[in-house]
Amino acid sequence: MQLWFVLGTAAELIKVYPLIVGAEKRGWIWRVVSTGQSGANFWRQYDEFNLPRSHSMDPLKSDRDLRHS
After folding, report:
1. 67 Cβ partners below 8 Å, 6+ apart?
2. CB 9 within 8 A of CB 41
3. Beta bridge partners of 65
4. Which tens digits make up the pLDDT trace of 6-63?
């Protein structure tokens, strides 16, 4: 089983986090793709959840956040 989570905001990541934890517990492969919608805030939350960057993709690379968009 391989799951791909396509997320744009930190709020979306917060909502999906329990699914990521569940996938990890089951030994499923998972990846997160960031759409870059909230750039810096998304990655700050990602790091606070201690999710491995090796499980993520950032095709639009953005360091912007909602305050400085």
Report:
1. none
2. yes
3. none
4. 999 999 999 999 999 999 999 999 999 999 888 789 999 999 999 999 999 877 665 5
Tell me which residue has tokens 């569940």: 22
CA atoms in the 13 A half-sphere facing the CB of 69 = 9
User: What is the token pair recorded at 13?
Assistant: 């990541």
Calpha distance 17→12 (Å, rounded): 8
Reduced to 3 states (helix: H, G, I; strand: E, B; else coil), residue 44 is helix
Q: Which residues have C-beta within 8 Å of that of residue 26, sequence separation ≥ 6?
A: 1
For the purposes of burial, counting CB atoms within 10 Å of the CB of 61, is it exposed (0-12), middle (13-18) or buried (19 or more)? Answer: exposed
Give the residue from 40, 1, 42 showing the smallest Cα distance to 19.
1
